Amino acid sequence: MKKFIITGSKPGFHSKQLLSAFVRLGAVSNFIPIDQLTLHAHSPNLPDLFNGCDGAVLRAIPSGSLEQIIFRMDALYALERRGVVFLNSPKTIEKTVDKYYTSSLLAEHGLPVPPTIVTERVDEGVEAFHSLGGDVVYKPLFGSGGKGMLRLTDEETAERSFRELVSNGAVLYLQRFIQCDQQDIRVFVLGGRVVAAMRRIGVEWRANCALGGKPIPYRPSPSIKSLALKAASVIGAEMAGVDLLPAKDGTYYVSEVNGSPAWRGLSLVSDVDIPLEIARYLLKKTGEN
């Protein structure tokens, strides 16, 4: 019988759905907090918590000190070297949690990304504010769900915000604000195909469901599917939530590629059983027998 692990910070909504999906397919599944791992550098064996594991879904890297985060990534790489098949791979997660890494890779491959400037200097941040059109979005370099984002539309507020952010150790990741009528598109990619999509209508300038955005059924066109698939491929993500901003000039900008995508809102407007699709994909990837 196959054994699968869900790992992350804590067993929330998505982890519980994945655990249930694997059981429905006749597999054993457990949740293991990533900060509970103990590794022996001299041993080629898996740690006891992962003993007999065929595959694992990585839901999140919990926040912590620099040392803790580096060790957690080290641990994931060690597990991978010892035979654990991850969805997504540790390398992919490293890319997708870092917004600059993601946006720069996408831009280098010719995908439409909102004009972006990143700096640790307040004066350069103010200059970027102007060069990006005087209407910019600050995003934490690490983070998801729209948390910590700021929309800045005047120089005085921007400079004051930049000083406070930098003094607290932040990097200024700044993007031109894209006018898109408080909406965006989330495309869920799995194994090189689009399995579901939705349009989100925000109650403010951010459309994230976690911030009150309303999910709307959406059938992506072939060009939208192609864009989302290419974005996931560039990042090396087998599973991804690709967020697109539909600008008024007809351009669809790739806003983010989430390597640990949520589907709570998507499940409300799609007939696809996403956790079951994920479980089936990983079961097939690791060999069904």
Q: Report strand %.
A: 15-25%
Which CATH C-level class of the largest domain is it?
Alpha Beta
Shape: globular
CATH superfamily of the largest domain: ATP-grasp fold, B domain
Helices, by number, come to: 9
Distance between the termini: 8 Å
List keywords for this structure.
single chain; D-amino Acid Aminotransferase, Chain A, domain 1; Dna Ligase, domain 1; 9 helices; 25% strand; globular
Describe this structure in words.
By secondary structure, the chain is α+β, with helices and mostly antiparallel strands. The protein contains nine helices and 13 strands. The strands form three sheets. Strands 11-10-9-12-13 form a five-stranded antiparallel β-sheet, with helices on both faces. Helix 5 (122-131) runs antiparallel to helix 6. It is globular and about 60 Å long.
Describe this structure in a few short sentences.
This protein is α+β, with helices and mostly antiparallel strands and 289 residues long. Helix content is 35%, strand content 25%.
SSE layout:
Blueprint: E1 3-8, H1 13-24, E2 28-33, E3 55-58, H2 66-81, E4 85-87, H3 90-96, H4 99-108, E5 116-119, H5 122-131, E6 136-139, E7 150-152, H6 155-167, E8 172-176, E9 183-190, E10 193-201, E11 214-217, H7 222-235, E12 239-246, E13 252-258, H8 264-269, H9 274-285
